[in-house]
Amino acid sequence: xxxxxxxxxxxxxxxxxxxxxxxxxxxxxxxxxxxxxxxxxxxxxxxxxxxxxxxxxxxxxxxxxxxxxxxxxxxxxxxxxxxxxxxxxxxxxxxxxxxxxxxxxxxxxxxxxxxxxxxxxxxxxxxxxxxxxxxxxxxxxxxxxxxxxxxxxxxxxxxxxxxxxxxxxxxxxxxxxxxxxxxxxxxxxxxxxxxxxxxxxxxxxxxxxxxxxxxxxxxxxxxxxxxxxxxxxxxxxxxxxxxxxxxxxxxxxxxxxxxxxxxxxx
Length: 266
Known about the structure:
- By secondary structure, this protein is of the alpha/beta class.
- The chain has helices spanning 36-44, 110-127, 132-158, 173-179, 196-208, 222-230, 250-262; strands spanning 2-3, 48-50, 69-71, 82-83, 89-90, 96-97, 101-102, 164-167, 182-185, 213-216, 234-237.
- The longest helix is centred in the middle third of the chain and has 27 residues, at 132-158.
- The radius of gyration is 19 Å and the shape is globular.
- The termini are far apart.
């Protein structure tokens, strides 16, 4: 079972494992609290993969069998980014929280995503050594795809490295660090319009950081679009893919993200 690195199909395990991502599409996996039945399902799994870096807050409040657990980002723990978090806010049913602590969308640095995928491959090989060659081949194919994304994004961002950008939410830290994005974040949700004082703060922020584009995790509401247009700021979606996206896998979503970001640097 996986927590954090959401994919639609088990690219590494092929058809040799049943991969379950238990978060429902209408929740944020980072802040959900699974019910007793879901926790029991985790306990029964042969392998529990989680993202690490403080993702999936509920993990610290339950006791799972450690011999089954693989923290996929443990190999680059020294490269975690600490965050100040800012004000508390809510994501629908998940309740109020802040982003203070450690930035957890580690996979938005595609080189780190490769390391996470490698740790999954190694865990699968340990569990099913007879399928080693299949797991290695599937990992190699995924690695090539991820590094292609990395190369494309590096080329796009490097064409204008000082270009100022806004982000609607503080989830792009690893993306900004790896690809040199000049990014400043606020703490807004796509489906709700921020209060007047936050719009005023954004306008002041723009005095020293004159961004013409804002990155959103999902399509912003018409109210947000209208207010941003009044400030001459355009919007684009860069979906972190923390949860499943209907009809698409992780690579599909990231290819769309990169195509969206390419508009900014043309």
